[in-house]
Each structure stands twice: as C-alpha cells, then as structure tokens.
Amino acid sequence: MRKIKIVTDSTADLTPEMIEKYKIHVVPLSISIDGQTYIDGVDLTKAEFAKKLVSSEELPKSSQPSVGSFVAKYEELSSDEETEVLSIHLTEGMSGTFNAAQTAAKMADANVTVVNSKFISIALGFQVVEAAKQAEQGATVADIVQHLEQIQKNTSLYIMVDTLEYLAKGGRIGRGRALLGSLLKIKPIASLADGVYTPVAKVRTHMQMIELLKIKFIEETKEKNILGVGIAHIEAEGLATKLKDAIQSFCKETSIFITETSPIISTHTGPGAIALMYYTES
Q: Pairing mode, if any, of strands 155-160 and 111-116?
C-alpha cells in the first residue's frame, strides 16, 4: 500500500500539536537579524522575534530553505518505493521556497510532488492539514492535489498592516508615502488571491477594519459550509480576539483559530498586523 508523507515550511503557522497529530514534516526558513541568523521556529520563538524586530537596526531578512535541506528531507522520508512525498509551500510570489522545493524534487532520489499553495500563514495551513487528512483516508496524490486546487479557489485572506514603517523599510512603498500615511493614520487592507497581493481598502481605526472584514466574511460565506477560520497576528492578540468575537456568531459551528504569525511574515508587516483567513466548501 502506497504511503503519502506531507511536507510544508515554517510559514504555515501550524501548532506543534497539529504537526504531531497530522504527522506533518516542516522544513524551516531562516531569518537574519543584525548579522545573526536564526532558524524559524527552532532557535527563535515568535515572541523573541517580535522584540528583536522592534529593536533591530536594520529590517531582518528572511531566506528560503536551501535546496539541499529539501533533498535531505525528501530522501529521509522516502524509505521505500511505496512512499510518496507531497510538499506544500507558501505562495511563489512571496518567496523562493516553492522553487527550491521543485529543484530539490528533481534532484532527490524520491517520488515528490510540489504544490504552490498560493497563500501564506493559516491559509497555507488549511491546505496542509487537509492534505494530511486525505492521505490518511487513502487518497492518491493526484486526488489530493485536485482537492487542494478547490480549497485555493474557496479561500479568502485579508490582511491589515497597522504601521507603514516596515513596508517602507522593505521597499514595498516609498518613504514619503509611508510618512504621509502615518500622519493620516492610514491602515491599508489587502487581499491575497492566486498568490497576488491586492489592495482592498484603507481604514484609520481598528473598529473600521473589524467592520470591513466582518462584512467581507458575511458576504463571502453566505449560504456556504464554512470549513475553517483563522486569525494570525503579530503583537495584536487583543485585536485578534475582538475580530474573532465580531464574526463568531456568523460561524457558530466553526471554531476560530488564533495564532501569532511566523517571523518570516512579520518582517514585512511589522507589529500590530492582523490577517483573517477562511475557506468554504465548493
């Protein structure tokens, strides 16, 4: 009987309990802060990173896993010819991780299929967990990949950045624009669909953000079966709880998962950022 083993990267924002329960294998990214390199989730916790992010002289820089680390992981998991590896990663548009995994798949002495999730954080985690469940139920790799494509089409991700400082430091917006936005207290909200970062709106208060995301959630899940809801944040647990409370009554049968996001993502958003992710049955 063929066995399918699931691999992802450290941006999936899965808890240790979820990783153990679903037998998921994680290849971590790394991040450099003021000349020192850390392995995401291994020798740098999310809380430790948040402190370093604010105090660091330069914007931390993230690095994708090496091709060699992927090759080693794939060959480690492929103990026999009956084993297949399904490797699911953050959107290709935000990291070279997917490409590194693809290159490794061609080099490794293993049967590997690599999937671009087209998402990040919990929205990537949705696909990883579903793949693990499907594999446990005896689905083929082809069946699982087709299922993941459906999840991608039915997933929404909205993110609010609380400060424009880190977008400016990362070169994503000009410093003049960031200064003006800060003076006006602008908080941009964007979506991530098909791996593309798309501006949606600008708000000035957290309550405006909560109301906008609540409306989006109601509109996009109306008369649909909600399969998963998650909120990721950096140093914004109180705000995440308020957002959860605002939408929980519209998905009473679905628990809302809250987590602090990976340092890899936090680097580009800065403290106070928050993202709402959910997916429905097709």
A: unpaired
- Residue in 202, 219, 221, 214 with CA at minimum distance from that of residue 282: 221
Q: Is the domain 3-29+64-153 a CATH 3.30.160.390 member?
A: no
Place of tokens 């909600």: 226
**Rounded mean pLDDT of 97-114?**
97
What are the residues whose beta carbons fall under 8 Å from the beta carbon of 102, sequence distance 6 or more?
Answer: 114
CA separation for the pair 115, 98 (Å, rounded) = 8
81 close to 110: Cβ distance less than 8 angstroms: no
- Residue intervals of the chain classified under CATH 3.30.1180.10 are 155-280
Q: Which of 112-121, 200-209, 237-246, 267-276 has the lowest mean pLDDT?
A: 267-276
Check residue 40 and report its DSSP letter.
Answer: B
User: Tokens 């929980």 appear where?
Assistant: 248
Fold of 155-280: Hypothetical Protein Tm841; Chain: A;domain 3 (3.30.1180)
Planar angle of CA 111, 114, 118, nearest 5 degrees: 170
Domain limits, CATH 3.40.50.10170, in the chain = 3-29+64-153
Cβ neighbors of 136 (< 8 A, separation 6 or more) are 22
